[in-house]
Amino acid sequence: MTDMPSDLVWTRAAPPDATGPGPWIEIAFGEGDDGEAPVYLRGTNAPETVVTTNRRKWDAFVLGVQAGEFDHFVEGVLESGPGE
Protein backbone atom coordinates (compact mmCIF):
# COMPACT_ATOMS: atom_id res chain seq x y z
CA MET A 1 0.00 0.00 0.00
CA THR A 2 1.15 3.53 -0.74
CA ASP A 3 2.17 5.61 2.24
CA MET A 4 -0.60 7.95 3.29
CA PRO A 5 0.08 11.49 4.43
CA SER A 6 -0.22 11.76 8.22
CA ASP A 7 -1.98 15.13 8.06
CA LEU A 8 -5.11 14.11 6.16
CA VAL A 9 -8.34 15.79 7.21
CA TRP A 10 -11.08 13.14 7.28
CA THR A 11 -14.69 14.19 6.64
CA ARG A 12 -17.45 11.87 7.80
CA ALA A 13 -20.32 11.20 5.40
CA ALA A 14 -23.17 10.89 7.88
CA PRO A 15 -26.62 12.45 8.01
CA PRO A 16 -26.68 15.72 9.98
CA ASP A 17 -28.94 14.18 12.64
CA ALA A 18 -26.88 10.99 12.97
CA THR A 19 -26.01 9.83 16.45
CA GLY A 20 -23.63 7.14 17.53
CA PRO A 21 -20.45 5.81 16.03
CA GLY A 22 -21.87 4.59 12.73
CA PRO A 23 -20.28 2.86 10.91
CA TRP A 24 -19.85 5.72 8.46
CA ILE A 25 -17.69 6.38 5.43
CA GLU A 26 -14.96 9.00 5.75
CA ILE A 27 -13.16 10.76 2.90
CA ALA A 28 -9.93 12.75 2.74
CA PHE A 29 -8.41 14.60 -0.19
CA GLY A 30 -4.67 14.43 -0.78
CA GLU A 31 -2.48 17.20 -2.13
CA GLY A 32 -3.01 18.48 -5.63
CA ASP A 33 -5.85 19.93 -7.62
CA ASP A 34 -5.64 17.96 -10.83
CA GLY A 35 -7.52 14.81 -11.83
CA GLU A 36 -4.76 12.56 -10.53
CA ALA A 37 -4.74 14.02 -6.99
CA PRO A 38 -5.36 11.22 -4.47
CA VAL A 39 -8.66 10.67 -2.67
CA TYR A 40 -8.77 8.36 0.38
CA LEU A 41 -11.84 6.48 1.67
CA ARG A 42 -12.27 4.44 4.85
CA GLY A 43 -14.98 3.10 7.12
CA THR A 44 -15.17 4.23 10.73
CA ASN A 45 -15.47 0.58 11.76
CA ALA A 46 -12.10 -0.26 10.10
CA PRO A 47 -10.08 2.96 9.82
CA GLU A 48 -6.87 1.06 9.13
CA THR A 49 -8.33 -0.16 5.80
CA VAL A 50 -8.10 2.68 3.30
CA VAL A 51 -9.12 2.66 -0.35
CA THR A 52 -7.36 5.13 -2.63
CA THR A 53 -8.63 6.54 -5.90
CA ASN A 54 -8.05 9.81 -7.73
CA ARG A 55 -10.03 13.02 -7.99
CA ARG A 56 -11.16 12.37 -11.58
CA LYS A 57 -12.73 9.02 -10.61
CA TRP A 58 -14.19 10.41 -7.38
CA ASP A 59 -15.83 13.30 -9.23
CA ALA A 60 -17.31 10.87 -11.79
CA PHE A 61 -18.69 8.72 -8.95
CA VAL A 62 -20.27 11.70 -7.19
CA LEU A 63 -21.89 12.87 -10.42
CA GLY A 64 -23.25 9.34 -10.95
CA VAL A 65 -24.75 9.29 -7.46
CA GLN A 66 -26.36 12.68 -8.04
CA ALA A 67 -27.78 11.45 -11.35
CA GLY A 68 -29.31 8.37 -9.70
CA GLU A 69 -27.08 5.86 -11.50
CA PHE A 70 -26.71 3.75 -8.36
CA ASP A 71 -30.26 3.93 -7.02
CA HIS A 72 -30.92 0.30 -7.97
CA PHE A 73 -28.45 -0.76 -5.24
CA VAL A 74 -30.76 0.59 -2.53
CA GLU A 75 -34.19 -0.21 -3.94
CA GLY A 76 -36.41 -1.44 -1.12
CA VAL A 77 -34.01 -0.30 1.62
CA LEU A 78 -36.16 2.66 2.55
CA GLU A 79 -39.82 1.91 2.03
CA SER A 80 -40.88 5.31 3.35
CA GLY A 81 -39.26 8.72 3.52
CA PRO A 82 -37.81 10.32 6.63
CA GLY A 83 -40.36 11.01 9.32
CA GLU A 84 -43.01 8.77 7.79
TrEMBL record:
Name recorded for this polypeptide: DUF397 domain-containing protein
Organism phylogeny: Bacteria, Bacillati, Actinomycetota, Actinomycetes, Kitasatosporales
Positions of region (Disordered): 1-22
